[in-house]
């Protein structure tokens, strides 16, 4: 008989921190109900700004999810280091945030998880990313449930 251990409910969230340098480094942490992960990659600040601006898209359509991918070469498989996809979850306007993070040196070490959020939280995240990139905040958090 296989028994799953109960897990304590955790607040789901995606946390971004940006460290400016010649290349720039985006530090990414994700926590969902059952999984968590931490990673990052060298990303130009303009790429992070563009991602933040794209979060104002409304409505997000199932056939055109909001996606961002950072990593090596083809940005898929083990070359993907940081990936985020936001898609509609249901007809009530909830959104599903899918996150994939890999260790940038040991790319086979990775976590894939997802959580639910809302357009209101997505808009707060968009504003927080702008503040992060303007050096007015230390982190940007997308809260989920």
Report on the architecture of this protein.
This protein is of the alpha+beta class and 145 residues long. The chain has a single domain, classed as Roll (Transcriptional Co-activator pc4, Chain A). It contains two helices and eight strands, in the order βββαββββαβ. It has helices at residues 45-54, 119-133, and strands at residues 13-19, 25-31, 36-42, 66-71, 80-88, 95-102, 110-117, 140-143. The strands form two sheets. It has a four-stranded antiparallel beta sheet. A four-stranded antiparallel beta sheet has the order 4-5-6-7. Helix 1 (45-54) packs antiparallel against helix 2 (119-133). The longest helix is centred in the last third of the chain and has 15 residues, at 119-133. The N and C termini lie far apart (31 Å). The model has no long low-confidence stretch (mean pLDDT 92).
User: How large is the radius of gyration?
Assistant: 15 Å
Oligomer: single chain
Percent of residues in beta strands:
35-45%
CATH class: Mainly Beta
Record the strand order, biggest sheet.
3-2-1-8
* Number of separate strands: 8
Structural class: alpha+beta
Q: List segments where confidence is low: pLDDT < 50 over at least 5 consecutive residues.
A: none
Share of helical residues: 10-25%
Q: Which architecture per CATH?
A: Roll
What is the first-to-last residue Cα distance?
31 Å
Number of helices: 2
Overall pLDDT level: 92
Task: Summarize the biggest pleated sheet.
Answer: 4 strands, antiparallel
How many separate domains? 1
Order of H and E elements: EEEHEEEEHE
Overall geometry comes to: globular
CATH overall fold name: Transcriptional Co-activator pc4, Chain A
């Amino acid at each position: 008989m296989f028994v799953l251990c109960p897990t304590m409910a955790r607040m789901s969230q995606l946390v971004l921190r940006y460290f400016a340098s010649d290349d720039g480094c985006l530090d990414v942490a994700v926590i969902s109900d059952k999984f968590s992960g931490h990673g990052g990659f060298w990303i130009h600040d303009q790429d992070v700004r563009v991602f933040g601006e794209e979060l104002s898209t409304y409505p997000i359509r199932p056939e055109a999810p909001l996606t961002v991918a950072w990593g090596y070469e083809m940005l898929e498989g083990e070359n993907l280091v940081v990936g985020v996809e936001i898609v509609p979850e249901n007809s009530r306007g909830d959104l599903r945030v899918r996150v994939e993070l890999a260790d940038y040196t040991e790319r086979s070490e990775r976590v894939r998880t997802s959580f639910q959020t809302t357009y209101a939280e997505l808009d707060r995240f968009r504003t927080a990313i702008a503040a992060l990139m303007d050096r007015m905040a230390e982190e940007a958090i997308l809260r989920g449930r």
